[in-house]
Write a structure and sequence with these properties.
single chain, alpha+beta, Glycoprotein, Type 4 Pilin, 3-stranded antiparallel beta sheet, 5 strands, elongated
Length: 169
């Protein structure tokens, strides 16, 4: 005998599948908005920049201990012996590779006063105003103008800086 009872059927109807897919789509969208991968990538790049500048600072302090002054700057780069070292190049024995900005088109900026007793390092934070450590509430670092540097020397707004212990960025 054949059972024609619909409660015995197997599988899902088209409407049931569409409802489940719709719910999954809404959940995925909410999750994507909550995570915001673009902001997370910017935050990671900014953390990388801050770490790079700390690494460069340690190398500059080692140089200062050896030479009694910080290296001069040429074209916004560190230039011991007045020969600029490209960002990403070696600077032995102080650092194996001089870090460079993780974003193409951006660069770090180094400036040293003529006497070699102060230096400034600048970077462009992608999060700008959202980063509590950014200069001037995400605007250009004030010391840029006193050092005759453009606010966009970093490839974007130079809104983060570190310096030698005797001055402020």
């Amino acid at each position: 005998m054949k059972d024609n009872n619909k409660s015995m059927r197997k599988g899902f109807t088209l409407i049931e599948l569409l409802v489940v897919l719709g719910i999954l789509g809404i959940l995925a969208t909410v999750l994507l908005v909550a995570i915001n991968p673009s902001a997370q990538l910017q935050k990671a790049n900014d953390a990388h920049r801050k770490s790079d500048l700390e690494t460069i600072q340690r190398a500059l302090e080692l140089y200062y201990q050896d030479k009694g002054s910080y290296p001069p700057s040429v074209n916004n780069e560190i230039a011991p012996g007045n020969v600029a070292i490209n960002w990403g190049g070696p600077w032995q024995p102080y650092i194996s590779t001089l870090p460079k900005d993780p974003t193409a088109g951006n660069t770090y900026v180094y400036y040293s006063a003529a006497a070699g007793q102060t230096y400034y390092l600048y970077a462009n934070l992608q999060r700008g105003t959202s980063d509590p450590q950014a200069c001037n509430k995400g605007g250009a670092c004030i010391s840029l103008s006193t050092n005759s540097l453009s606010s966009n020397s970093c490839g974007g707004m130079c809104n983060y800086g570190v310096s030698s212990p005797n001055v402020s960025p």
